[in-house]
Amino acid sequence: MSEFWLISAPGDKENLQALERLNTVTSKSNLSYNTKFAIPDFKVGTLDSLVGLSDELGKLDAFAESLIKRMAQSVVEVLEDSKGKVQENLLANGVDLTSFVTHFEWDMAKYPAKQPLAGVVDTLAKQLAQIETDLKSRTAAYNTLKTTLENLEKKSMGNLFTRTLSDIVCKEDFVLDSEYLITLLVIVPKPSYSQWQKTYESLSDMVVPRSTKLIAEDGEGGLFTVTLFRKVIDDFKVKAKENKFTVREFYYDETAIRRERDEMSRLLSDKKQQYGPLLRWLKVNFSEAFIAWIHIKALRVFVESVLRYGLPVNFQAVLLQPHKKSATKRLREVLNSVFRHLDQVAAASLLDASVEIPGLQLSNQDYFPYVYFHIDLGLLD
Fold it and tell me: What is the pTM of this model?
């Protein structure tokens, strides 16, 4: 499973023994794989400041998760027909996301633990905000180009009634620059090819004999040329319609056709040029955003643990990876049983309505006696 539970319990002897019992039970019952989750010793500051940071970190956590989902979706959209390669492009520090989470180490170079917690949070917030700004501008430019190209491609994929004809017709199909003559394009149903050949010359006066030619077909019919005098165009259209032949409104303009073809070539070239740099940017910055997200989880565990268990700072964080979805209910029961003794501490704190306890995490209205956070990498699949 790509789901993780990040918990913490007080670091005293009784609770360290409880953690050992948890490891023993979950291992024997094949419920989860558990590892210690290392969190640095931060500068605590005041409890009031921690309460404020708790709220801020909750919002930043949600923002970071939303951002990496959007970036993952952008990778899917950019890869288009290569969706089987999505996962190999969604890495963190060059490794798959599960490996990064299970082997997490705090990055002291990026986020120095010696600076005040508010400073660390501010650094993370600014980093993620910049990534989001860049994501919007880069994907907007690429998506505009992609949409324009798709619209042009759709024009060449419809039926003969609607599709562009610039890639079908050629100059030799038309009588051009004549004061009196004009070449029309007529769509004829396939069952009516024989009727067309027999009758097109007599549909109106002044139709040039033997001037028809089949130049394109689709599943329903064919596109024929016919040359006639300009003065009988309207009459010919009426007679053609009566016989279920459709005159397609099209006038050969070599300049316009060349411009359309050049536009398609330019767009294809631009898309190809932007593809590589955008995918590389998404890979690098998805990694950065994901790493920042897990650091935020670590910060939340630290802040909530101090608020829940008090000072001096003494707690142990553990990362649990449930082995299968069907075992999560049983795993939750084991956790609640092992740490049931923490309920008394929490209950005493809850009696003081003036004290906020952000560490009392609620999920589906359930209360957990330990600090708990959820990491779901399946949301990125």
Answer: 0.78
